[in-house]
Backbone:
């Protein structure tokens, strides 16, 4: 089963509808191929006092990319669950001086399988997702985000 | 030298003027006494798909509390510098189901002194600030944020 353009559009609508701040950050779901999910955001809506991207915006877009990736993955597996961020380490490597993209990379298939089995057995599982903010061809921000998944 | 109500009001104006997202998050500078700085934000402007506070908003308000604390500290010392977030570990301990407050706690005096000396000598220094999000009397989110300070 693959993620379709309709899934991507539904995720975009859900993000903007359910999280007011996502509207203000003008987040767009660029694409998703089940191995990764890309969200973009413009600098203008997300700038700081130095005219570069605000660290809180970079973090928020990245955390939503990881959340979106897991949301589509669980939907594709027919699992109805809530996904919430539990902890995160974020490293700012370079200032971001323009529009930017957050790329969430899917965990290995074996890790996803283990998460799905734990969820089926205990109704709850933890899973790490790596997210990078890319700007002008370089990795500018790196996150290792841990999410808790709870079966609805 | 102490932080005055005028400093606190100037910080509030600066936050809302220079960071568009701070306006949308409806952040307010509650108070500052040089040992801590408190920012508040309402749930309505910062909610997620579950009706609790969005993890990105909690992070953003907390990181701005640490930034505000350092900004006032450096101003009080007569140091003109830029402060940017470099890395952060964030732990979400409890869901936040109402308006919330971020409390940044000043580093020990010896740590602030060392930061000021390093800044004077090299024009650049790193400093950690602990920030907690409090909600209904409990610590709900905990951050250890590292900032880089660069003399202007």
Residues:
């Amino acid at each position: 089963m693959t993620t379709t353009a309709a899934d991507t559009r539904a995720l975009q609508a859900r993000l903007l509808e359910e999280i007011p701040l996502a509207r203000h950050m003008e987040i767009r779901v660029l694409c998703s191929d089940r191995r990764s999910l890309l969200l973009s955001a413009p600098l203008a809506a997300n700038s700081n006092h130095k005219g570069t991207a605000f660290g809180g915006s970079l973090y928020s877009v990245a955390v939503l990319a990881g959340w979106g990736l897991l949301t589509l993955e669980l939907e594709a597996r027919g699992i109805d669950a809530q996904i919430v961020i539990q902890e995160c380490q974020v490293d700012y490597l370079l200032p971001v001086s323009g529009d930017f993209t957050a790329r969430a990379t899917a965990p290995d298939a074996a890790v996803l399988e283990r998460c799905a089995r734990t969820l089926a057995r205990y109704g709850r599982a933890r899973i790490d997702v790596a997210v990078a903010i890319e700007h002008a061809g370089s990795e500018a921000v790196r996150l290792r985000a841990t999410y808790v998944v709870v079966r609805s």
Observations:
- Chain A touches chain B through 34 residues (CB under 8 Å).
